[in-house]
Design goal:
Blueprint: E1 4-10, H1 14-25, E2 30-34, H2 40-44, H3 47-65, H4 80-104, E3 108-111, E4 114-118, E5 121-124, E6 127-136, E7 140-142, E8 155-156, H5 158-161, E9 170-174, H6 178-189, E10 193-197, H7 209-221, E11 225-227, E12 230-238, E13 241-248, E14 252-256, E15 258-261, E16 265-267, E17 280-281, E18 284-285, E19 298-300, H8 311-325, E20 339-341, E21 346-351, H9 354-359, E22 364-370, H10 375-379, E23 386-392, E24 398-405, H11 408-420, H12 425-430, H13 440-449
Parallel strand pairs: 1-2, 1-6, 2-3, 6-19, 8-15, 9-10, 9-15, 10-11
Antiparallel strand pairs: 4-5, 5-6, 7-16, 12-13, 13-14, 17-18, 20-21, 21-24, 22-23, 23-24
Helix pairs in contact: 1-8, 3-4, 3-6
Length: 463
């Protein structure tokens, strides 16, 4: 039958399209339903447009700083119309690329809102589709705050923040998590006065405390004001301005051009999901290591299936679910899921933080290497940062790697492989790393853990 499939995937984001493509590769007849555009939030509203804006801001900062290296030209200026046109084309190209991959792998897709009728039936508009397996990949959405209703002009969420209609002179960002600090970097680079407030006593959630503190110190030097243990008690829109009352370590009432609510994301589930009787946990769909729910033949992947809310985690889950549906021996059981924060400098982490390792009962050892001693960092004038390795004192196994550094996004792959393969800290130290690179700071941190680093003074280690 034309409307009968081996699997239907609800959601065309990173998890959904990865599941769809792998199912197509495995010869399964399948349908992907996406209510907006293929690529989902990550491609259209999140990862890609925000990184594009971060790049533009980085170029502007570099242009201003090049005069110190003997290169001069006029002050860089932004043409928002041209910038948005370029960003839109980039998104269009990526969306089109997914569409091409669907065609190559014989994946059918339709645009529309899916409604679940039962575990084998999905309705889109007036059409009904049946399937043997259902994959829910419906993603997440920004968490709103009460009495701070988004208007898209002065009170924004992250979706609004990537669509620049004007450049604010001042912006208040609520939340010092990944989203908040990335947008703080974007708007600061583009010339805004940026204030960030966070109710917790630390930034970046459960990121290693020393790493988050190092980043905040650097951001403060850049002029980004981050205030911990501070909340926004109320806001009032006054024409083109927003008056915000702050309480906590920072107590003041002040007007801003814009307020960005970036306090996190919550799961989004399809209409009709209550008909399935799925087990839930605080709005997230509970799944096992095969990404299967408590209902046979129903899978959930990505943000709607719980944290961490990361595109690459969703992609892996999508592949696992697809292979399980195809009868292959697959499971989701990572020892390390990397996380990257695209501030300036970047933050990248994999494995356990120092605090998490201690809480788990490990007796730990720690190796650190500061970028001030790294030749490659000197060549670009970016010497404020640190790489930190957490090891198990008993076995010398690598438990976690954490970096505040340019190129941290590329460096962290080594850490993931090391943790997944059960490498020791000594293994990393013995491995020759190219010089001069940012990556060799991981080797230096490993050697420092054992008191053997060449380019810094070592803490004596007993033999």
């Amino acid at each position: 039958m034309a409307n009968t499939y081996d699997a239907i995937v609800i959601g065309g984001g990173p998890g959904g399209y990865s599941a769809a493509i792998r199912l197509g590769q495995l010869g399964k007849k399948m349908l992907c339903v996406e209510k907006e555009r293929l690529g989902g939030v990550c491609l259209v509203w999140g990862c890609m447009p925000s990184k594009a804006l971060l790049h533009v801001g980085e170029v502007m900062v570099q242009a201003r700083e090049l005069k110190d290296r003997g290169i001069t030209f006029g002050e860089p200026k932004i043409d928002l119309a041209t910038l948005n046109k370029w960003k839109s084309k980039m998104i269009d190209d990526l969306v089109g690329g997914i569409g091409t991959l669907f065609k190559l792998n014989k994946v059918e897709s339709i645009a529309g809102t899916a409604e679940i009728v039962d575990k084998n039936t999905v309705k889109v508009g007036s059409e009904t589709y049946t399937c043997s397996n259902l994959v829910i990949a419906s993603g997440s959405e920004p968490i709103p705050l009460p009495n701070m209703e988004r208007n898209g002009k002065t009170i924004l969420n992250s979706d609004d923040a990537v669509s620049l209609t004007d450049l604010p002179k001042s912006i208040l960002i609520l939340g010092a998590g990944v989203i908040g600090l990335e947008f703080a970097t974007i708007y600061k680079r583009l010339g805004a006065d940026v204030t960030v407030v966070e109710m917790m006593d630390h930034a970046l959630g459960d990121t290693d405390l020393e790493i988050s503190q190092a980043l905040l110190r650097i951001l403060k030097k850049q002029g980004i004001n981050v205030h911990l243990k501070t909340k926004c008690a109320s806001v009032e829109v006054k024409g083109s301005k927003v008056s915000a009352k702050l309480e906590g370590e920072l107590n003041e009432t002040r007007e801003y051009d814009k307020v960005l609510v970036a306090v996190g994301r919550r799961p989004r589930t399809p209409k009709g999901i209550d008909k399935l009787g799925l087990q839930m946990d605080r709005g997230f769909i509970k799944v096992d290591d095969k990404r299967m729910t408590n209902v046979a033949g129903v899978f959930a992947i990505g943000d709607c299936a719980g944290g961490p809310l990361l595109a690459h985690k969703a992609m892996k889950e999508g592949v696992v679910a697809a292979e399980v549906i195809a009868g292959l021996p697959a499971a989701y059981d990572p020892m390390a899921v990397p996380n990257c924060v695209y501030t300036d400098p970047q933050v990248a982490t994999a494995g356990l933080s120092e605090e998490q390792a201690k809480a788990a009962g490990y007796e730990i050892t720690v190796g650190k290497f500061r970028l001030a001693a790294l030749g490659r960092a000197r060549t670009i004038g970016a010497t404020d940062g640190i790489v930190k390795i957490v090891g198990d004192k008993k076995t010398d196994l690598v438990l976690g790697v954490h970096a505040v550094s340019p190129m941290a996004e590329a460096m962290i792959g080594e850490a993931v492989i090391a943790i997944e393969m059960g490498a020791t800290v000594e293994d990393i130290g013995l491995s020759i790393h190219a010089h001069p690179t940012f990556g060799e700071s991981i080797m230096e941190a490993a050697e420092a853990l054992h008191g053997k680093a060449i380019h810094i003074a070592n803490t004596p280690v007993k033999a």
